[in-house]
Amino acid sequence: MILQPVILSGGSGTRLWPLSREHFPKQLIALFGELSLLQNTVMRMDGLDSRLSKTQSDEVNVLNPLIICNEEHRFLVGEQVRQIKKNYSKIILEPVGRNTAPAMTLAALAAAGSETDPILLVMPADHLIKDVTAFHQAVVLAVPHARAGGVVTFGIVPDAPETGFGYIKKGARQGDGDTFTIAAFVEKPDLKTAEKYLNSGDYLWNSGIFMMTATTWMTAIKQYRSDIAQSCVQAFEQGAADRDFFRVDAKVFAACPSDSIDYAVMEKIVGSAKHGDAVVVPLDAGWSDVGSWASLWSASEHDAAGNVKKGDVHAIDSKNNVLIAEHRVLATVGLEDIIAVETADAVLVAHKDRSQDIKKIVEELKRNNKTQYQTHRRVSRPWGCYESIDNGERFQVKRITVNPRAALSLQMHHHRAEHWIVVKGTAKVTRGDEILLVSENQSTYIPVGMKHRLENPGTIPLELIEVQSGSYLGEDDIVRFEDVYGR
């Protein structure tokens, strides 16, 4: 038996602004401990093969995860997997977001290349699961149904009358195990209805975690949403490998309809004569979708006053708050149920009850062309990162870090000149027809219009200060001639 984990990493996490941003969303952030949500999702597969092998009649092979992500995040995703010394089977790049049903269809097409029909275990990259053992046990219960051609979803055992989640109503119990047919999918309820669901014990939260074979999914998506299936097949067949990634055809995929796995397939199966093919496995594993600051507060460890604190935080007579400081001292007096988050370029203060509305701030920033909705002051690149330190009308100062053995593209600027001062390591600089080695406390100058490249030939990170000057300093004033990253 082959089990192919599929990790959907296309979300933007706008409700966790200002930590989560379009170019560095919540799944890439270490919100709990030292690992990001994506890294924890990858690590969640450790030991699953041995647990499955004890329950199956044949050998179980759990493959490296197949990851679907936004094209903008491709190097960040790959680097985060490498940081935890894990491998991935493939990273499929979405040129635009089209929700989970097209993403899963791309995953099924990629996984179907094996000789045996693999079972897909589909998981969002941005969920928290504290009890991995309980998660593995739920997967074990789900496998027989998936192997038999059924579709499985995992329903979270609710511990509160949550109004922000969709619900699954349990039907008849299947066999002796803790598995049920699906009586109905239910939209997000009001508080009174959610309390009734909780008290009945018949309802589970809809987790967005699924299991079925690649063939089962392709058969279902062709039957219920042939337009999505056709677009994805064409986009995949016209795609091409690019280094460690697979790019689907951008034009074809952009025309693909957008829909979720639930709406496109699951609800239609439940409403059809084949409703017995769909089952739900209850999951009680310390799950959270970390969909807002309020849910992060619920899922986090608190101090004696109920505060979640990170960074240099000092709270006097304050309780039940989310208090995060990344660069400065954050002090509160007499606050309750408040979110206060400080980053290098933004500060958020909101009531915890309004955490779902923080996405409105992101929408306003976007309407007003403020870059803070999209990027942090520290911007990651495949070769390292840069951070803006200061800027004015005709100048900008950046701190640049280049990873060992990494190189920027051979490029040119029409509107700006650059001064580079090396503060750590040694830089290999291409400047026109010259190639220079610039060591610590040395500098070089790149005039407007000159081809240039910056490389780190050493084994330690290269750090330098860049001073830009000119009439236009935007990141789009880059003409690339050569680039090892295919940009």
Brief rundown of the structure:
The protein is an alpha/beta fold and about 475 residues long. The protein contains 12 helices and 31 strands.
Explain what the structure shows.
The protein has 487 residues and is of the alpha/beta class. The chain is 24% helix and 33% strand. The chain has twelve helices and 31 strands. The strands form seven sheets. A six-stranded antiparallel β-sheet has the order 21-22-23-30-25-28, with no helix packed on it. Strands 7-10-8-9-13 form a five-stranded mixed barrel, surrounded by four helices. Strand 11 and strand 12 (245-247) form a beta hairpin. The longest helix has 16 residues, at 132-147. It is globular and about 75 Å long. The protein starts with a strand and ends in a 5-residue tail after the last strand. The mean pLDDT is 94.
How many E-type strands?
31
Shape annotation: globular
Secondary structure: helix percent: 10-25%
Could you give the distance between the termini?
Answer: 39 Å
Q: How large is the radius of gyration? A: 25 Å
- What would you call the structural class? alpha/beta
Oligomer: single chain
| Sequence of strands across the biggest β-sheet | 21-22-23-30-25-28
- How many H/I helices? 12
Strand percentage lies at 25-35%
Q: Which segments are poorly predicted (pLDDT under 50) over 5 or more consecutive residues?
A: none
Average pLDDT over all residues: 94
What about the largest sheet? 6 strands, antiparallel
